[in-house]
Amino acid sequence: MTAGNMLIYVLIASLTTFFVRVLPFLVFQGGRPVPHFVSWTGKNLPRAAMAMLVVYCLKDVQFTALPSWLPAILASLVTVVLHVRYRKMVLSICGGTAVYMALLHIL
Amino acid sequence: MVFLVSAMIYPCVSQTLRKGSGNGLKSSGYLRKAFVASLPVMAGYVFLGIAYGIAMQARGFRTGWSVLISIVVYGGSLQFAMIDPMATLMPFLTFALLCLLIQARHLFYGLTMLEPYNRAGIYKPYLIFALSDETYSLVCNGAPQGVSAEKWFAAVSGFDQLWWVTGTVLGAVLGSVIPMQWLTGIDFSMTALFIVIMTEQTMDAVKMWKVGNCTLTDVLFAPLIGFLGTLGSLLLAGKESFLLFAMAIILVGFFVRYRTEERGKAA
């Protein structure tokens, strides 16, 4: 990939992020009420987006090949269990990733 | 982007200048309080930043790109999510939509901070730019008593981003030193991050359901349509373009669900 392409990606990511963060300040100047659909979507969309991203991250897993799906599934489960049990973000991410890397190495 | 960078650097510079101009005691007061407040975020951000720096390095992106992105984009989950699209040259339009969808939650942080940030004067542009998930969690309950609120907000935001950039630099350096075969599978840290956020969100939603603030359908609808919509799109459309379909399915599903819910309330 070229540096020009990269710059465009970085620019898009930077501008969309700032746009989303600044939009409420532009739209709701002077205390205008927030439409219900907007607050409803905002409350629920993050959870749909995270589920989508999890699937996106696992898109290259091959469910016909054990060395591919077993580490992904087991490490995902370990991450969830660690998080439900201890609720420490760094621990859950470290633990899940360590299990994944170890399993890739063994299988 | 130049605007963003200058908007970001300005408060830091002006803080330093103020500190040196005889007003030392007062300014160090808010700086120290902000520093202490940002410590829990430091642990998470430095670690995640390291994971990000390493993941970028493992995907073949040089240190400069990781650091630039941590400075001008500054959004953890998007930065992880955009590694693969950049490496596989996703079409720009799909990429922009993906960014908007991932970052959409930030809309609502702004809604909480409208009033305090509108009073923040010169700091306002940077405060809005730097309103990340973690910074929001620190500023959403307001500034502590006895310090200038806008300066405290600015200092907390600045420290948080500093931890993030520091982690990124450390990770990029580590990633270029550690042999690549040791790093196989490190990119799972991004998957784990999203799984953790999703678990956290689900635990909160289940808590709401248990105290009777919402129905079980409310708990399950969003993650299920996100999961099944994306999985279905992947199977039907294939790896190249499934995200676009998934996003469309999610938005249409949301609209239908919202309408049904409103109709149910009216009846």
Structure description:
The complex is a heterodimer of chains A (about 110) and B (about 270). With about 110 residues, chain A is mostly helical. Chain A contains four helices and no strands. In chain A, helix 3 runs antiparallel to helix 4. Chain B has about 270 residues and is mainly alpha-helical. Chain B folds into two domains: about 180 residues, no CATH class; about 80 residues. In chain B, helix 3 runs antiparallel to helix 10 and helix 12 packs antiparallel against helix 13. The longest helix of chain B is centred in the N-terminal third of the chain and has 35 residues. The N and C termini of chain B lie far apart (about 50 Å). At the A-B interface, helix 1, helix 2, helix 3 and helix 4 of A face helix 2, helix 3, helix 4, helix 5 and helix 6 of B.
Keywords:
heterodimer; A: 107 residues; mainly alpha; 4 helices; 80% helix; B: 267 residues; 2 domains; 13 helices; 79% helix; 0% strand; disordered N terminus
Quick recap:
By secondary structure, chain A is an all-alpha fold.
User: Shape of chain B, please?
Assistant: globular
Q: What's the helical proportion of residues of chain B?
A: over 70%
Count every beta strand of chain B, where a strand is a DSSP E run of 2 or more residues.
0
Q: Number of helical runs of chain B? A: 13
Tell me the Rg of chain A in angstroms: 20 Å
Q: Give the overall shape of chain A.
A: extended
Number of domains of chain B: 2
Helix share of residues of chain A? over 70%
Low-confidence stretches of chain B: 1-25
Strand content of chain A: under 5%
Low-confidence stretches of chain A: none
- Summarize the helix and strand pattern of chain B as letters: HHHHHHHHHHHHH
Quaternary structure of the protein = heterodimer
The main pleated sheet of chain B reads as:
none
Topology (SSEs and partners):
The complex is a heterodimer of chains A (107) and B (267).
Chain A: H1 3-27, H2 36-57, H3 66-86, H4 89-106
Chain B: H1 2-20, H2 24-58, H3 63-72, H4 76-81, H5 83-87, H6 92-103, H7 106-118, H8 124-129, H9 133-139, H10 149-177, H11 188-210, H12 216-237, H13 242-266
